[in-house]
Amino acid sequence: MTKAASARSLLRTATASAHARVDDAFGGFDLDDRDGYRSFLMAQAGPLLTAEAAIDAFAPAALLPDWPERSRAALIRADLADLDAPAPKPEPFDVRSDAAALGVIYVLEGSRLGGAMLARNVPMDLPARFIRCAPEPKRWQELIKVLDRHLVTPDQHAVAADAARAVFDLFWRSARQHGRMFVVE
User: Fold this and answer.
1) Backbone φ/ψ region at 91: left (φ over 0), alpha (ψ -120 to 50), beta
2) Is pTM beyond 0.90 here?
3) Residue 42's closest CA among 76, 70, 18?
4) Taking burial as the number of CB atoms within 10 A of a residue's CB, which of 59, 109, 116, 124 is the most buried?
5) Please, are residues 114 and 23 in contact by the beta-carbon 8 Å criterion?
């Protein structure tokens, strides 16, 4: 008998192409330049604030009691303010189930891992509370346990994956909006 795949593994597989598309879209930002970094933060802020507002409205305390400590909305708002950039308003985005909430949180928490790698490219004189907010291994491990406890049926996996892909799409669209678009002639 084979061991069932973990919820994290199933989410990673189901969102791999959406994740790769977001990574590619954000790869064009110049993080060591003040204007490029401001654009990067603007591109991150819209989706992050939208997704976090949706999770706040859902109130996931039963799933993840430390959700308020995981939020990075205040950090990105502070960095944008330091760069004289307005924080965008969250878009409408509904989270209606535990599975959907976990799919959204999976993307938000996973983005910390990528941020930790990107933070090395940001000069020390730029505000970087948001991007330097490294993942805490203990919290990541707890999230993996929560995913495995609450995402057990194929339907729950599908709902979580759909929600995660929707968040990746928010990030992709925002990166395209705020990034430097190159036209090939």
Assistant:
1) beta
2) yes
3) 76
4) 109
5) yes
Q: How many residues does the chain have?
A: 185
In one-letter notation, the amino acid at residue 18 is A
Query: For the residues of 70-121, what is the DSSP string, one character each?
Result: H--HHHHHHHHHHTT-PPPPPPP----SHHHHHHHHHHHHHHHHHHHHHGGG
Residue entry with tokens 């799919």: 103
Please state, for a pLDDT cut of 90, what percent of the chain lies above it.
82
Distances (CA, A) of 95 to 25, 105, 137, 159, 163: 25, 11, 26, 10, 8
Cα distance from N-terminal residue to C-terminal residue, the chain: 55
User: What is the per-residue pLDDT across 112-126, written as a single tens digit (0 to 9) for each?
Assistant: 888 888 899 999 999
Spatial CA neighbour of 101 closest among 137, 152, 136, 67: 67
Q: Which two tokens stand for residue 16?
A: 């791999």
Alpha helices, DSSP H only, in the chain? 7-14, 16-26, 34-58, 67-70, 73-82, 98-118, 137-150, 154-178
Which token pair is 156? 């729950």
